[in-house]
């Protein structure tokens, strides 16, 4: 019988699944298990921790607004058009996705650091980037935008072209088609891309540290605050890590909910 | 058959990955020592590790406080060499380190970019608008900077600290930001300025501020090779590594 012959394979699958699950969840469970919940919560009451959380929320929100406002039409533009070098362009847009954070930090310093023409121009215009909150937003936008763009391009490409054609033949201007047809149709994908970008921005560490520095309330986001406390206050580092885990889990779950009960069941 | 090959390949990969140590002059039976050392010791210890005769040294560099935290968490290390004597002493009190010794000294200096520096003296640091980067609290260079600044008196030290724009987790962050022109001045050790190959200039601090820091090292209680670890600590005090430290700008303890 088939099932009998597949018996050893079924066991193998189960063992592999158990191993993968244990390996992936054990460290996350340990964050919550090493200290009693009461201590974790009281460690969050510390002023620096709250500053870091508030700064992370503000800078991530600012980065997401930039990414959505510029990234959505940009992704639509790439998705609609066919031109020479399109694949190269998409590769360039996706490149920061695979860059190590340290490379992102160095790249930002080399491009808009205080020793560069652009950096000096920004400074003269009154926009301080390095060692300032604006620099954090730049770093987050740089590393997180590709996550959104990639997903948004794919979602716009997946729209049935007859749908857009129908909108056009019914007399809707391209902008109206984009707003009333393309965006609503691609929405689940856009939301998923937003969530990925949000998660990446919240967790950004290396580029922020190298480009923007680390100062409480100004540039010290939650990941930097965790690193800052690693040696001096392990409980506080655990507490902030727990918050990031909870927020990240909430993001993942809400994406699955937006995509419908089907996705949750899956 | 294929599976066996894949497995053998994986094992070989793991074996290779394990082989990143600096080995001196062959000899496969030499003991292997894991040394956790403060970031500021990188140039000196990397230089002497190549010729260290008695063991294969596996060096890892990070902020001393992070390394101490790793040792507390049970990361297997044989020797700990910190950028102060406080951390080794505390680890010894906690029963994690055997009798630490002072093996080197280093001078805290005010570092400024070599070209076009906006800051020329310690007094200039009080001016509003000067951007200063220092080590974070809990990081030896940061704690040391604060201790030295405290000796300026409350008014002056407060004015200087008000210009701090970044609390960096290690010395590299300070040096990097100065070299990139992201900050006007920072407090680092004389050896760091020397290691920055001409990017930075050091402004010496007056002796009344007691800018000399001492470095402590010891054998980790859980060391797998306590004898070899002990011998390496001795080499830090008077041997090839001691000479390398002096060449890198460190002083005798």
What does the model show?
- The complex is a heterodimer of chains A (266) and B (253).
- Chain A contains 14 helices and no strands.
- Chain A is mainly alpha-helical and 266 residues long.
- Chain A starts with a helix and ends with a helix.
- The mean pLDDT of chain A is 89.
- With 253 residues, chain B is of the alpha/beta class.
- Chain B folds into two domains: 31-105 and 213-247, D-Maltodextrin-Binding Protein, domain 2; 107-211, 3-Layer(aba) Sandwich (D-Maltodextrin-Binding Protein, domain 2), CATH 3.40.190.10.
- Chain B is built from ten helices and nine strands.
- In chain B, helix 2 (42-49) links the parallel strand 1 (32-38) and strand 2 (56-62).
- In chain B, helix 2 (42-49) packs antiparallel against helix 10 (240-247).
- Residues 1-27 of chain B have low confidence and may be disordered.
- Classes of the chains: A mainly alpha (266), B alpha/beta (253).
- The interface between A and B is medium-sized, with 21 and 24 residues.
List keywords for this structure.
heterodimer, A: 266 residues, mainly alpha, MetI-like fold, 14 helices, B: 253 residues, D-Maltodextrin-Binding Protein, domain 2, 9-stranded mixed sheet, 10 helices, elongated
Please provide a brief summary of the model.
The complex is a heterodimer of chains A (266) and B (253). Chain A has helices at residues 2-5, 7-33, 37-44, 47-80, 86-98, 101-112, 117-124, 133-157, 161-169, 174-203, 206-212, 222-230, 234-258, 261-265. Chain A has 266 residues and is an all-alpha fold.
Walk me through the topology.
The complex is a heterodimer of chains A (266) and B (253).
Chain A: H1 2-5, H2 7-33, H3 37-44, H4 47-80, H5 86-98, H6 101-112, H7 117-124, H8 133-157, H9 161-169, H10 174-203, H11 206-212, H12 222-230, H13 234-258, H14 261-265
Chain B: H1 2-17, E1 32-38, H2 42-49, E2 56-62, H3 64-72, E3 79-81, H4 86-93, E4 101-113, E5 132-135, H5 140-150, H6 154-161, E6 164-168, H7 171-179, E7 185-189, H8 190-195, E8 200-204, E9 212-219, H9 226-237, H10 240-247
Parallel strand pairs in B: 1-2, 1-3, 5-6, 5-7
Antiparallel strand pairs in B: 3-9, 4-7, 4-8, 4-9
